[in-house]
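We modelled the chain as a single entity of 230 amino acids. Its sequence is:
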Amino acid sequence: MTLKLKAQKREALGTKAIKDLRAKGLIPAELYGKGVENVHLSVDSSEFDVVYKEGGESTIVNVDFGDGQRPVLIHDIHIDPVSSKILNIDFYEVNLKEKIVTNIPLEFIGEAPAVKDMEGVLIKTTEEIEIEALPMNIPQHIDVDVSVLDDFDKSIYVRDLKAGVDFEIKTDPDTVIASVSEPREEEEEPEEEMSVEDVVVEGEKPGEDEESEGADDAGGGEEKKPEGDN
């Protein structure tokens, strides 16, 4: 699959020029590649959203900016952490006759019996893998069927993935992709045991009885005789 995207060359650079572009609904972009001269571009944000949603970062996009179409991959996008708007884009021009190494996402399908029937928790350890292929043969994603996870001692590894004839998987085959962990048991907190001494009667301070008893003992040994009886 190949997508198309129109772009415009931009001559004005700098912070003010970029702010003006964004105010018009345009995104500044850079196009570069091996043996390719860097080109400053801008693309319509709405058009780019459609292309990116459909192709992601693993689909060839033919960028047309009046200098012929250039086959590129969306190499990187920079997003504002507050507004979530795309700030700028990097396009990497590729040679359609040369293999490249790139990352592609994994798409998890199916339902794990260890989750459905045994109330386990699905753990996705790896979200993407590295492959080598001609640009036109790069798949958009690779499916990972988690329905094979029917017990807690099973895992899916990179070696379990079905590699296509048009690309080679470069990620370590022993890398774990997904597994199911046992459900956590909620531990009940033991209730604190209270003794009679811990109970405080309203209006009585702790230790008050002991103090009064001590006072009685101190003055209660011998009765005083009134003066003048001698």
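As a brief sanity check on the tokenised model: The chain has two domains: 2-94, 101-181. The longest strand covers residues 69-79.
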